[in-house]
């Protein structure tokens, strides 16, 4: 999709005038500040404020849209578009409106301790049991349904130093061994860190034997890259036959570990607990951590798939769209988005603001207001606290007014007001669409006159579990745009 043009018609004088008009309360202002800098200025320049989108034929129409190909760079060194940093989603849910959602978590890991040769001293047994430490949060679905999850070994490395792109419908099945290593069952609404003892399957026993026979220097902290080339990571996914109408959980990876236990010789190993007390430590474990927060070498992506077959949203699949007359949704977990289309009548109304066709109209600033359905704390909490506006959401192409700087630390700055106004009687998102609207005024093709509302451009938001229900054209609070614009009289008048 084309990027929108910059505001080449706005001179420095016009920018100053834009700042000035924000300090006045009237809706139409005649001002000659900077008029000498504009050819034919003097009394020919005036600034006005109006609201569009409410009149007959000018209401902005909403459509549900969906893309399963949001570009996601896997590298922790290239954060732009990175996938659910620190969070892994697992499970499935089924709902009459949003259809089926299935999630699997893909991650790599490293030994959590700075292991030394002494760690494996007097080891009596191979690794004989495994525990998974999880920090789950219930997201959606029916948590009473007991699910069985399998843990598979990755065959292929997840890229951690390149710009490899994953899509959120990433097919992990193409990158794992056919048989799982471990399995476990899960249900409920957790609220704390839990330890889960894993069932060791035949393929898992082979892995434990491999770990026991491995050169232990591979587990040392200075061998991270060698370790990841050998042990590429895991996938947690639903086991075949698990009910689809279950629940989806978010697992906070910085608190997620896998412990591999082994036994030491009882009479030959002891550790100091303090100066006066010594205790035999018979059972020991090697711990793998899966957090990618430190920006080192581990990373995670997710496979999140939506199937809207048989629902009111079925038409969004394969690039389609569904008209949304009264309400339109921005769904979490990489689900449906809201595409707004500006009709010809909107621009006819804008051109009608000119006293005659010969006048020039240049947009100094345009703020779009989109209301949330329901002014309740519950609705506010469930909604995205900030929404972004995109010309192409699949490629994360934001409109220029949503300028984003990518700092060397990987943090992202969005200096625009797209935040939900939670004040009583408000409950709207205000978004700057200035350059979009100036371009759309001059180009009447469909691509130039539509934009998509979706979660903001960060590593976290596109796959958060929020949902915003927005009011559309046929509601009592349709989308509207408040514009500050400059009218310039033609020469000869």
> Shape, please?
elongated
**How would you sum up the major sheet?**
9 strands, antiparallel
Percent strand: 35-45%
The chain-level mean pLDDT equals 79
Low-confidence segments, ≥5 residues, pLDDT <50?
Answer: 1-35, 73-82, 271-275, 402-416
Calculate the terminal CA-CA distance, rounded to whole Å. 40 Å
Number of extended strands: 34
Pfam families: DUF4270
Signal peptide: 1-25
Protein name: DUF4270 domain-containing protein
Keywords: Signal
Describe the model.
This protein is mainly beta and 493 residues long. The chain folds into two domains: 12-65 and 310-488, no CATH class; 73-307, no CATH class. The protein has helices at residues 12-21, 202-213, 224-230, 344-351, 377-382, 434-442, and strands at 28-30, 45-52, 61-65, 71-73, 87-95, 99-107, 110-111, 129-134, 136-141, 147-153, 165-167, 182-186, 194-197, 199-200, 234-238, 247-252, 257-263, 270-272, 278-280, 283-289, 300-307, 322-324, 327-331, 337-341, 360-371, 387-392, 397-398, 405-406, 412-413, 420-421, 428-432, 450-455, 467-471, 480-488. Strands 5, 6, 9, 10, 12, 14, 15, 16 and 21 form a nine-stranded antiparallel β-sheet that branches. Strands 1-2-34-25-31-30 form a six-stranded antiparallel β-sheet, with helices on both faces. The longest helix is centred in the middle third of the chain and has 12 residues, at 202-213. The chain starts with 11 loop residues before the first helix and ends in a 5-residue tail after the last strand. Residues 1-35, 73-82, 271-275 and 402-416 have low confidence and may be disordered.
